[in-house]
Amino acid sequence: MTQAISFIKMHGLGNDFVVLDAREAALPAMTAQAARAIADRRTGIGCDQVIVLEPSEAHDFRARFFNSDGSEVGACGNGSRAVALLHGAPAVIETDGGLLALEPLDGGARVDLGEPRFDWDAIPLAYPMDTGSMPVAWDDLAAPMAVNVGNPHVIFFVDDSDAVPLETLGQVIEHDPLFPERVNVNVASLAGPDHLRLRVWERGAGLTCACGTGACATAVAAIRRGLVQSPVTVTLPGGDLVIAWQPGGTIVMSGPATVAFRGTFNWDDYAGGTRA
Predict the structure, then answer these.
(1) How many domains does the chain have?
(2) Which partner from 134, 174, 184, 271 sits 20 to 30 angstroms from 71, CA to CA?
């Protein structure tokens, strides 16, 4: 029997999601093929990530995040704000990247992503090196920092983030053997003492309008390098996020989230991974 599945289409600064809520009634198990088919912008619903909400025995609920290529990732900052807005009340949620504390705000949410990790094997990297100034380069992009904020990020500080050919270099860096679990690639430029401009190549999704964990990782890296002071406004192509962090503390991200529309689809149309 064909099963009709309800979904909520949401976005945070243009980074968009299809949210499936399985907290009260179980849904078919999400697969990489189904996630790719749902996310396809020509033949599916279309999104950067598919988010599945599930029950949790220890916390308010669990969230799982699937990129548009079908890969499952530990956390998603923009997606977490969307989930907070949808839930409508403060919550602590379980993700593969750790626990997140959510608080809905008017038109958006505040998310505590926990403490950043800097050790080379926590990123992870393929071999030990200084993650504060990595002795590596790709064309003119050199000496990045690496931070894990629930998923791995590498951050390059440049004079003009818009001038970097991230549409080509992003994929090369993402798949470099230095990053055994692949990596999100961030290029940032200084716009003021508490302001950064940022573009992100997202692991498994490509260039994106906004990346919440990328904004968090980049703000943390800039604070560590003494480039900016907290709280930091991070301007992405889709808009602004505000990131607060002090060394030794947790990262708090604030920004908008929006419900775009709601609908249903037939699971059998997507379960095979392709649509006619």
Answers:
(1) 2
(2) 134
The single residue of 47, 76, 209, 216 carrying the catalytic annotation is 76
| Residues 147 and 221 occupy one common structural domain | yes
One domain for residues 131 and 245: yes
275 within some domain: no
pLDDT single digits (tens) 24-37: 999 999 999 999 99
Q: What is the pLDDT of residues 201-252, one digit of tens each?
A: 999 889 999 999 999 999 999 999 999 999 999 999 999 999 999 999 999 9
CATH of the domain at 186: 3.10.310.10
Which entry of 47, 209, 211, 216 is annotated as an active-site residue? 211
**Domain identity same for 175 and 265:** no
Cut 0.85: pTM above it: yes
- Residues of the chain scoring pLDDT < 50: 1, 273-276
In a domain, 265, yes or no: yes
Same-domain status, 80 and 162? no
Q: Mind spelling out the 3-state secondary structure of the chain?
A: CCCEEEEEEEEECCEEEEEEECCCCCCCCCCHHHHHHHHCCCCCCCCCEEEEEECCCCCCEEEEEEECCCCEECCCHHHHHHHHHHHCCCEEEEECCEEEEEEEECCEEEEEEECCECCHHHCCCCCCCCCCCCCCEECCEECCEEEECCCEEEEEECCCHHHCCHHHHHHHHHCCCCCCCCCEEEEEEEEECCEEEEEEEECCCEEECCCHHHHHHHHHHHHHCCCCCCCEEEEECCEEEEEECCCCCCEEEEEECEEEEEEEEEHHHHHCCCCC
Looking at residue 97, what is its pLDDT?
87
Residues 70 and 140 in one domain: no
Q: Is residue 274 part of a domain?
A: no
76 is catalytic: yes
